[in-house]
Design a protein that fits this description.
The protein has six helices and 44 strands. It folds into two domains: 104 residues, Sandwich (Immunoglobulin-like); 574 residues, TonB-dependent receptor, beta-barrel domain (Maltoporin, Chain A), CATH 2.40.170. The protein is mostly beta strands.
């Protein structure tokens, strides 16, 4: 099916080449007319075309049809210049000289900085992820795409579900922010993915380390901040169509996005649909707990799924106010390999091998609805940001009904249901009292209401309210030396609701008799939490070297499952019991980052040291309930350190080499698991890549070939009952190019990817399926087509 679809799309694309027009690249250089020094960050804007100069003053605009175009060349501190360029086959380098403006630079210094410069000046270890990176490295989920960034990994659940891990910490210790509002779902679950459409995202900011100062509880390990897209240009209309097909799981996907703006009003919209079958693994059998599971045609049965996502936004912008309202809905239904949710039912009538596209039991379906408004108001020396959000997360988990212990066989398949409503309000004021100080003060508040359903109990219904206020000051000693200091206080209330089993259990009385009663699993309980967090950092830019250091104290409120769970988790073969006496997690972390840029290369290192005063984890005990081992939430002191290394160089102008490495060491220094590491600790890993940019070849424009080689070490540092994981080497390749198709249309971008080229059988230590000895996906060939409108 996948090959037929690919053939159809290739035929439609290449059949139009006869009427194609050639496209060219505009290459230019912008200099200061007085000093003849290159200017970085200069904006080159034409109709539906945009570029910005690099540190060498150069810019490139690709895929331009032959003709005459007008561009506006602007840079703060310099007079704007209009430039007319005639694009032909033999055009020369465009050289632009900008005259210095008579306006005072100091008055516009803040708004004139590029994002890259702002990141350098901010004393926080931050990675900026561009739209180009996302399009070039796109995988089956957003977090799998971001896993190429050093220090970022994922907990994967099949083909399309994954959640972020930053430096070995995940679940509710990493905050995901979309359009200014924290994404709230059921982040605590091992098999709960991230309900976000990865198409149409332009910029992501990843913060490594303590970020509670601005983002509050849960940002104890870091933040994935999906920033709002830039506002469209005046009187513009554009869009794109993305098509995707993959061989490993016969995936077919389409995503269509449009945006339009007149003078002040604008809108955006996007629709995405993906349908895929069971994915293939490089083995024909799986051995788990002395059970042998035969796989038909290497398909990991019942891992098919489908996703349907839609979003729309409308906005208004003027000189001092910008407001945009986003409405989105993400729906997914995914099957689970049956042995990941308890062993397959031996008397089941389900034929899992009947079709590789069936979604049989067990499966989950989730619908995440979101409404967000972002408003920015500028006046005098203040910029006020207001974010208002509402989210509804409805998740159902279905499995074959069977009797367990005293529980009779249920009459339906709905094992669990979680319905979570979240209301958010963030207000932030950025104030410049003078040229040296930038003060940011704000307040965050959030209310959650989480209801449950189904016949399987794990966590109770609860209400959660949090409010926090913060202030920090960035002190500019000079243009290259900045200090940051800030503090925050948070207060939270968690109210759990009582729950009784829907069936009776037999209990022993003190007099030797027995009784049949409805066991109480949760009680009405109200808990209060409060915590202070703070951060102190500096950044210093010396020529081509940037130094950063930041020390922060952060915290995390305990979750409902950590406090009040009391039930059998048959998915994980264990009984989970919460602890109402848990304290909020407190973490102290020192982050350092040093980066240096040479003429054609760069190098950087980001070490960290982290200490938890009371890390919360699920500890296996020697006790059992209905043959299931009892796990209890407890706390311990934990020491962690590690970091990332990165380097890149450009050879022969067209060959770019990159290397990245990451390492995390964790050790519990107290508690029942003293001297052990933490669960899901990622092993040492290195990613080597090479990218070669070819010259245009006939119909192929800007073709480039990339090879990625990941080397991962053994992971022998485990927490029982975890198992060790052997190291592995995996090779991936990709080819990107564009071709001109229809006359007067923009080129069609083509991306071919070959993942796991040698069909290597390997196990990812941070994968959910690794717990039951399921290897990662085998060889996969994918083709992605993007047509810009």
């Amino acid at each position: 099916m996948m090959l037929k679809a690919v053939s159809i799309w290739l035929f439609l694309s290449f059949s139009t080449i006869i009427i194609a027009q050639n496209t060219y690249s505009i290459k230019g250089l912008v200099l200061n007319s007085k000093t003849l020094q290159p200017l970085e960050g200069v904006n080159i804007i034409g109709e539906n075309m945009y570029s910005i100069t690099s540190s060498t003053g150069t810019f490139t605009i690709k895929n331009v049809l032959e003709g005459t175009y007008t561009f506006k060349i602007s840079h703060l501190g310099f007079a704007t210049k209009n430039l007319t360029i005639t694009v032909t086959a033999n055009m020369n380098l465009v050289k632009v000289l900008l005259d210095e403006s008579t306006s005072s630079l100091d008055e516009i210094e803040v708004t004139g900085k590029t994002k890259k410069r702002i990141v350098k000046e901010t004393p926080i270890v931050t990675e900026l992820v561009s739209k180009e990176f996302l399009e070039t490295n796109r995988e089956n989920s957003l977090m799998q795409t971001l896993s190429k960034i050093p220090g970022v990994s994922t907990i994967k659940i099949g083909s399309g579900q994954s959640k972020p891990v930053i430096r070995g910490l995940g679940f509710n210790r990493v905050v995901v922010v979309q359009n200014g509002v924290k994404h709230e779902a059921q982040q605590w679950g091992n098999d709960h993915g991230l309900e976000i459409d990865q198409y149409g995202i332009e910029n992501i900011k990843i913060i490594k380390g303590a970020a509670s100062l601005v983002y509050g509880s849960d940002a104890i390990a870091g933040v994935v901040d999906i920033e709002p897209n830039k506002i469209p240009l005046e009187n513009s209309f554009n869009g794109e169509v993305n098509l995707l097909a993959e061989s490993n799981n016969d995936l077919l996907g389409v995503s269509v996005g449009l945006q339009k703006r007149n003078k002040k009003w604008f809108y955006r919209t996007r629709l995405t649909y993906r349908d895929y079958g069971d994915y293939k693994v490089p083995t024909d059998k799986i051995n788990y707990e002395n059970y042998i599971f035969e796989l038909h045609d290497n398909n990991l049965r019942n891992t098919a799924g489908r996703e349907a996502n839609a979003n729309f936004s409308i906005g208004y912008t003027s000189n001092n106010i910008t407001s945009e309202t986003f409405i989105s809905n993400v729906y997914a239904k995914n099957g689970f390999f049956a042995n990941a949710h308890g062993l397959e039912v031996r008397v089941s009538e389900i034929d899992y091998d009947a079709s590789n596209r069936d979604i049989d039991l067990p499966y989950h379906k989730v619908n995440h609805f979101k409404v967000i408004n972002n408003t920015s108001i500028d006046f005098d020396k203040h910029t006020i940001l207001i974010d208002i959000g509402y989210q509804n997360n409805n998740r159902e988990e279905h499995t074959e009904p069977t009797s367990h212990g005293y529980m009779p066989k249920p009459d339906n398949t709905k094992e669990r249901e979680f319905i979570k409503n979240t209301y958010s309000l963030n207000i932030k004021d950025t104030f410049k009292p003078n040229k040296k100080h930038t003060v940011v003060a704000g307040i965050n508040t959030e209310y959650q209401n989480n209801n449950i359903g189904g016949w399987g109990f794990l966590i109770p219904e609860y209400n959660r309210f949090t409010i926090g206020t913060f202030v920090f000051d960035t002190f500019k000693i000079n243009s290259d030396f900045h200090l940051l200091a800030g503090a925050r206080y948070d207060f939270g209330i968690l109210e759990t609701k009582s729950y009784f089993d829907w069936f009776q259990s037999t209990v022993d009385n003190t007099d030797g008799s027995t009784s049949n009663i409805y066991l109480q699993r949760a009680q009405n309980k109200t808990l209060n939490f409060g915590s202070l967090s703070a951060s102190l950092g500096l950044s210093y830019i010396h020529n081509n070297t940037t130094y950063k250091a930041n020390f922060g104290k952060s915290f995390r409120m305990p979750l409902a499952n950590e406090l009040a769970s009391d039930g059998v988790n048959y998915h994980m073969y264990r009984y989970e019991k919460g602890n109402l006496d848990l304290d909020p997690e407190e973490s102290y972390q020192l982050d350092i980052d040093v980066s240096h840029r040479f003429k054609n290369s760069s190098v950087g290192i980001s070490p960290f040291v982290n200490f938890f005063e009371n890390y919360i984890y699920l500890n296996p005990t020697s006790n059992y309930y209905e043959t299931q081992q009892i796990y209890e939430y407890t706390q311990a002191k934990v020491l962690r350190f590690g970091g990332e290394f990165r380097a890149s160089t450009t050879l022969l102008k067209n060959l770019k080499l990159n290397a990245a490495a990451e390492y995390v060491y964790s050790r519990q220094t107290s508690g029942p698991k003293k001297d052990f590491t933490l669960p899901f600790s990622p092993p040492f890993s290195t990613l080597l890549s090479a990218n070669y940019q070819f010259k245009d070849f006939r119909i192929l424009k800007s073709p480039q070939f990339t090879v990625d080689y990941r080397i991962t070490a053994d992971q022998n540092e485990i927490v029982p009952p975890e198992q060790t994981t052997e190291g592995y080497h995996v090779l991936n390749m990709s080819f990107l190019t564009s071709i001109s198709t229809f006359k007067n249309s923009k080129p069609l971008q083509i991306r071919l990817k070959f993942n796991n080229v040698f069909n290597t059988e390997y196990y990812n230590h941070t994968s959910f399926y690794r717990l039951i000895d399921v290897p990662e996906a085998g060889r996969n060939i994918s083709i992605a087509l993007t047509q810009t409108l």
